[in-house]
Predict the 3D structure of the following.
Amino acid sequence: MTVGELARDEFLARLEHPGISLDTGPFLIRIKTAIGELADEVRFLYGEFPVLPDGGITHFRLELRRPAGLRRWWRPQVFSLFDGERRFEPMPLALAIPTLEWSLNWCVAANAHHHVMVHSAVLERDGRALLLPGTPGAGKSTLCAALAHRGWRLLSDEFALLRPADSQLVSWPRPISLKGPSIDLIRAFAPDARLGRTIPGTPKGPVAHLRPPSASVQRARDRAEPAWVVFPTYRAGEPARLTPLSRARAFYRLAQFSFNYELLGPPGFETLSRAIDGCDTYDFTYSKLDDALPLFQALVAPSSRRVAGS
Amino acid sequence: MRSHSSKPSWRPPRGVSRDRSGRARPLLLQALAEPERLPSLSAAGWDRLLREARRAEMLGRIAALVAGLGALDRIPTPARDPLEAARLIVEQQQRLIRWEITRILHALAGSDFPIVLLKGAAYLLAELPAGRGRLFADVDIMVPAEQLVQVEERLLQAGWEFVTLDRYDERYYRSWSHELMPMRHRHRGIVVDVHHNILPPVGRLLADARLLLEAARPLPGSRLAVLAPPDMILHSAVHMFQSGELHSALRDLTDLDALLRHFARDPGFFDALVARAHALGLARPLFYALRNTRRLLGTPTPEGLERRVDIPPRPVRALMDYLVSRAMVPRLPDATPRGVTLSRWALHVRYQWQRMPARLLARHLLHKALSRRAAR
């Protein structure tokens, strides 16, 4: 039973009480809210995720609530509770869905240390994974959304989750958060992309969430071998260009982009070095998606494999 | 390991069952008291236990208990990941602690007084079960009081810095405390507390540091030592209720439980413990340690042992039982009875009361209250 297969009324009722438990692949999460608009957004963005029966194990419980009192009506707010406790600042009610997404990211970044976590988009082709690590604004999500609509399977837009046992990448196909001009860009680039409401005025500018493609959600349990690490930078007017980068540098940057590399110590080092050993590593600058995509399709062709990173 | 039925509901240890609010009873205490029953816990039970343990910063301990039973493959799959995450974090922390200790030894090389490890660092390096799965905040060491100046100078020269530089704090530590101000190496994250005693020199309870140092047990092949087993228990006992926070209170309690279970294998241990408590004047803290580990964690101790230590009058006992069951029992936000915050505060005040004379305490609390207001 998926979210989309539940009748809307039943979904809303269960979301309000006791909360809906979702199987998102590596994490079982329970979301609880009585906020109607939020419920419909969740229903849209998480529509293809399996619903778990109540009363089992969940890894993270989030509840989004409106405050009692003045702030319910005057400049209405929303706040999220992690496991019944407030850990985050209240946000304007209009930002309920980004608040949910950010809270969920926080839960994982702060707790899921059984993976080495890197702030990176991850996509897969033929079992081989492409990592696009990057700071916000580097064009990572735009590129990720575009590739996810051109034959690549989305593993995650925000989290590269590497297993310490074998450095394989675990998939966590969540909605992709698109910011500012990327929203229209992706709409034009991939007319089949399913976007949620555009929310103006977040701290990151307007935001819209892209529903993860069906194939990605259905294959949420399939892992992938790291094969390429590409550091994207969006630079207006620049042609798309892949520049080989030494593995040592790529390793260092991955560690910097990691949420828990230092926290894990040796297992973090071993996991990332094993991952990088099997990867071709590049810097990448681009301004137009149409120029960028062919370079990534060419990566997959065996002839393009570099001899070695040094 | 004894076999058991698959009945998922456990009988809670005594004391916990008396939750008159009728709210769900904490599974964490039951898990700590009877880890051998963990493999038969239901999925709903695990869901609750994981949340309780995370709040109390005890996931690492649960992970170690499950691993110790060799039962990782017998617990529900989704429960394994949080335990594995906790195990990895604990392992790295323990590595950092071991490394910090080598750096302290390096900085103090050339001198020859003993360096006694206290609390977590001691359990870890003496390979005691109390160290398994335990999270560490810092490294605590104890040195002879006459070496304190030298230790401070050497650590400062080697790159350690005082964490707090407030002049009042400095005076507090130097005049009224049994340790130096917390120190941290400028390139590392671990806090080092250098003690010259286990209790402040101005408090209601006092301990003779020379006796502790004389009885300390050297660790093989090193100048490091740990307190003798009875002293280890007594130190943990005086430490209980120290902060108003749940996780440290519960950690002291589980430390005591693990130490008592481990040392109980020596048949003469409890006699030695009682004698030592009286000799050091720490019979009352020992009473609370024994009572609370038994009530909350079911720690097996010989019949009638508590009567041989220092029993407080009945009303005091009843009040302490109430405070402890409110303050130290881990509960989730949806199952928190009234009086928890107040009880934690009361225990903390009691701890402070024992640390220093009334006039000093009044002055100290006033200063803290005013400086907190000024900071706002």
In short: The two ends of chain A are 49 Å apart (CA to CA). Chain A touches chain B through 21 residues (CB under 8 Å).
